[in-house]
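A quick aside before the break. I want you to see a complete sequence-to-structure record at least once, exactly as it would be stored in a machine-readable document. Don't worry about memorizing anything.
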Amino acid sequence: MHIKTDDTVVIIAGKEKGLKGRVLKVLRKKNKVIVEGRNLVKRHLKPNPLIGREGGIIEKEAPIDASNVMLWSDQKKTRAGEVVGGGVRVQMRYVGSDGSLFATAAEAAKTYDAAPARLPKVRYAPATGERFE
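That is the input. The structure line, written in tokens, reads:
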């Protein structure tokens, strides 16, 4: 999945389109994310004296499909060259021994003297040149 916990994302579809927020939780099996302060729903709770919970109506965040959010970058540029924030597409890249990025694991493994068992990967935004660790 292209989104991880604590990423800043922008919602690109639905009733909250265009709003930003921080990812609180990623539900990988359901392909959904929970974004802080977005997609709020109301839940009615019955009082439960055994655990000390009062009844009432609470608001909490509901999951959003991961395809409806995009990673946010503050370094995105417009055609005129000024820096503005915006959503960016990311690609997975393998990291070589000197920190350079490679598209395939075989290319990255060639840069190591003794290739590690698992090559490090990063998310990379080609439009901004930004790395998301």
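Two observations worth writing down. The chain has a mean pLDDT of 85. Residues 105-109 form the longest helix (5 residues). We'll return to this after the break.
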